[in-house]
Amino acid sequence: MTAMLSCCCLLPLLTLLDRADGGPRVEPSPQLGDQNILWGADQYDFAIVLRASGMECIWHFAHQGERFYLNYMVQWVTGVANDRHLSVTVNAPSGLLVSTADDVTGELNFQAQESGFYQMCFSNFHNRFGSMQIFLNFGVYYEGKETAQQQKEEKQKELNDTLATIEGSTKRLQVYVFHMWRFYNFARMTKGKDYYLLLGNSRYVTWWSAIQSLVIVAAGSLQLFFLKRLFHSRMSTDTNRPCC
Q: What is the dihedral of CA 219, 220, 226, 227, to 10 degrees?
């Protein structure tokens, strides 16, 4: 019984000690050097729909020293008196404004000066009477210099070290493939924009042709009606024939 009471008292104490540690960290520890941080590359691409005068915000984590990029393109807009311009702002984890854009398509690229979650906000305040769909492609990549420890290790290697050559070629190939994927996503955005533009033009031509046809038929009917009203026929009493 005493052992059970001791266990019951120890469990809350361990829970409090675990919570006092602060829980999971989202920032790198100050004691960690650059060699202990996972420097890599990631990217995301998807489309979102913004309602009239609406705003959406997205957060993405970046380490200090990494390159942060954002590509966007307005694919289609609905509503009356629509405006295809999109207002984009990027804020640092501290709240400072890092970059901004206000156009139909744009590309933001900068080096992260601090580690944390960067906020990307997309505002549709130009278009107050309709929604719009935008395609996004954003992420981070690292192309910085090697650390002093890595440089020291590289100097100690032999010039004819095949593994070092393969490793360097692999890293360069990964960077080239990553940038090629970025350009491919931008081409996808352009292709999607052209597709929605063709659909919009097709609907515009179809409805405009139908309206013009209705106007022509209505104008012909009105002309015939008024022409018939100009002539009134009556029966002649002498010849018993209709006359105007």
A: 150
Give the CATH number, domain containing residue 55.
Answer: 2.60.120.380
Q: Which segments within 38-77 are labelled E, that is strand? A: 42-50, 55-62, 67-77
**Residue 5 corresponds to which amino acid?**
L
DSSP annotation of 93 reads T
Strand ranges across the sheet with 42-50: 42-50, 132-141, 67-77, 105-111
Pairing of strands 132-141, 97-103: unpaired
Domain count, the chain: 1
Containing structural domain, residue 84: 38-143+164-244
Q: Is residue 10 part of a domain?
A: no
79: in domain: yes
Q: 173 lies in a domain?
A: yes
Q: Which residues pair with 105 in a beta bridge?
A: 73
Q: Maximum Cα–Cα distance for the chain, whole Å?
A: 135
User: Residues 58-113: pLDDT tens digits?
Assistant: 999 998 888 899 999 888 888 775 788 899 999 999 999 999 999 888 899 999 99
CB 125 within 8 A of CB 53: yes
